[in-house]
Amino acid sequence: MERVRPKKHLGQHFLKDDSICERISTIYSQKNSSNALLEIGPGMGALTKHLTKLENKTLLCIEYDKESVDYLQEHSELDEKHIIYGDFLKIDLKSIFKDAPFDVIGNFPYNISSQILFKCLEYKNQVNQITGMFQKEVAERICSTPGSKSYGILSVLMQAYYNVDYCFTINEDAFIPPPKVKSAVINCIRNKNKALPCDEKAFKIIVKTAFNQRRKTLRNSLKSIYNNPEVQLPFQQKRAEELSVDDFIELSLFISKSQDTN
C-alpha cells in the first residue's frame, strides 16, 4: 500500500508539510506532561513519526479508517498493539488507561473536533494536555475571551479546566486534499481546578442554556432554570458572551443555593 485515499465522509485532510508536523510535536513536547500520549486520527502517520521520537512517551493511536490502520501497521514504527482500530467518541478510555493520566494530540477531523474536546472534558482529571489542529474558526472559538462574538459554550467549558493557547495558523495548501478553510493549532494545559467550587453538572447546564439564547439577557435566557422575581439574578442584565468563567461559577453557586432554600 503506497498511500491512503482521503475519505470525505471521515473529514480526512492529510498534512503534507512535514515542518508543520514537526512544529506540532515540538509545541507538545515543550510542556512536561503525561508519559502516555494518545493520537487521534493519525491517517498515514505524518505527525506520528515525530511523536515516536519523543523520549519517555508511550504512544497509542486511535484510527477509525481501516485503510489508514493497515497503512500504519505497514509503514509506522508502532507495533500493532499501539494502533487501535475504532471510533474515539465511542471508546471507553478507562479500558485503555485505567485511572492513569494521558495526553491527547492530533490533526482532528473537523466534523467531530468539538465532540473530541467534549469527550476529553469527561476525562479532564486524566487528560493533562491537548494539542490539536482544528478549523481556524473553531480554534478561535476555544481561545476566545468574554465580549467576543466567537466566545461561547466551548470557550467557557474548556477554559474552566484548561489554559488554552492559540499557537499558529495553517493555510489550505498544506493538506491533501486542501480544505476550504484555514486551520490552526492550539495547545491546552490542564489548570489547577481539580473541581469547580460549584456543582459542575449545573454549571454545564447553565452555560449551555445561557448561550443557546445568547441574544437575550440572562434574566430571560435562564428563565427555565431561575424565575424568582423577588430576588435578582446576578448579571441578569448581561448576555452570556459578557460573562467570564468565574462569573458563570458565581451564577451557578447562586442558582444552586436558591434552589436548595426553596
Secondary structure tally: strands: 9
Counted up, domains total 2
What's the gyration radius in Å?
A: 20 Å
Overall body shape: elongated
For the record, the CATH architecture of the largest domain stands as: 3-Layer(aba) Sandwich
Mean pLDDT: 94
Strand order of the largest sheet: 4-3-2-5-6-9-7
Portion of residues within helices: 25-40%
Main beta-sheet annotation: 7 strands, mixed
**CATH C-level label of the largest domain:** Alpha Beta
Strand content: 15-25%
CATH topology heading of the largest domain: Rossmann fold
In CATH terms, the superfamily of the largest domain is Vaccinia Virus protein VP39
Report the order of strands and helices. Answer: EHEHEHEHEHEHHEEEHHH
Total helical segments: 10
Structural class per helix/strand content?
alpha/beta
Show unreliable segments.
none
Give the terminus-to-terminus CA distance: 66 Å
A few lines on this structure:
This protein has 262 residues and is of the alpha/beta class. It has helices at 18-29, 48-51, 66-75, 94-97, 113-122, 136-143, 153-161, 200-212, 218-221, 245-260; strands at 14-15, 36-40, 58-63, 83-85, 102-107, 127-135, 162-170, 175-176, 183-190.
